Amino acid sequence: KQKILKARYLFPTDFSKLPKLSDGAFWLGNIADTRKKSAFDPKDLVTHALVAGSTGAGKSVAASIFAEEALKKKIPVIVFDPTSQWTGFVKPCRDKNLLINYPEFGLNSDSPRQFNGLLFNVQNSNINLDLKKYMSPGEITVFNMARLSSVEYDIAVQKIIQKIFDQSWEESPTLKLLVVFDEVHRLLDKYGGGKGGYVALEKACREFRKWGIGLIMVSQVNADFKSAVQGNILTEVQLNTKNMEDIKKAETKYGADYAKRITRQAIGVGMLQNPKYNDGKPWFVSFRPTLHDPHKVSDEELAKYDDYARKLETIEVRMADLKKRGIDTSDKDIELKLAKDKLKQGRFKMAEIYVDSLLNWLEKK
Fold first, then answer.
1. CB count in 10 Å sphere of residue 20
2. What angle do CA 297, 303, 306 make, to 5 degrees?
3. CB–CB of 286/259 below 8 Å?
4. Strand 77-81 relative to strand 49-52, pairing
5. What stretches of 294-329 show up as alpha helix (H) in DSSP?
6. 18 and 38 in contact (C-beta within 8 Å)?
7. CB–CB of 67/77 below 8 Å?
8. How far, CA to CA in Å, does 74 sit from each of 42, 116, 137, 195, 344?
9. What are the pLDDT digits (tens) for 190-230?
10. pTM for this model (two decimals)
11. Which end of the chain has fewer beta carbons closer than 10 Å to its terminal beta carbon, N or C?
12. What is the dihedral of CA 318, 321, 327, 332, to 10 degrees?
């Protein structure tokens, strides 16, 4: 018993009761304080995940590991990001503080990579999205919502979720799309939100699973938000926190031995729990370093992504109109695809050449 009290983390008594490593599994990192790899079955994201922890504990980075793994499996990821941090997905990791930890996880200097994607700046809560447009396999789309107040974010979340409900989706038992909402604690009354946002998320957690749409919600608090969605989130990741309500919840649910360790967790270590595994008890995961840049891109780069992405959407609409009028656009369709590909790779000069060419052509039509 003294050894248990002194140990920083608790270990599963039977590692075979944890998610298994396989070609289809996500690799999150290591079981904390071991060299054993920690796996996660992507099918379990269909029943959604809540990642919680104090500022600086590494909750957004932990959530981003799930997103990286989804992208590596060619699952599209769409992020609604009030932090701007997720915009770094379009660049490879160059942070020496992370790179120094690569060998611990079997990573090396060739491991950092960018992920193809699009970045948009959201200026207000009046957001009207066709999410199916952004479901390109293995690509990420980040909607930067840093300029929105808590009330505006609440309204935007309601509109986004309603738009998903309004669209037609085929049923799927497997994960087809991963949607991330960061800073969801801002939807709670005490953080300045209204009731609409988290009520919409509660409905989404109940219904999206049948369409293979998985949600990851990132929050500074666990207990308040979890009660709001009434148990429709089956995977929880609790990183370091001093929030007494979250600690008390862990003690009530799992026992004092687990609750005491929440405040001892190192940055980037999370207590993961899903009732399917480890007899319902949590286990501790040391999340691997990111392959992408965990820092936001510059405001100048973000503005370029947003500008070109919106121009390309306008071009696409105008070309669709030409097709309806019987005008052949086949050559320009190839040019449009090349423009999108270059932008997703962050090759602005090449994207600009194609965009200007397309706009000049459209002006003549």
1. 11
2. 105
3. no
4. unpaired
5. 299-324
6. yes
7. yes
8. 12, 11, 5, 35, 15
9. 777 777 898 899 999 999 999 999 999 999 988 876 665 76
10. 0.93
11. N
12. 30
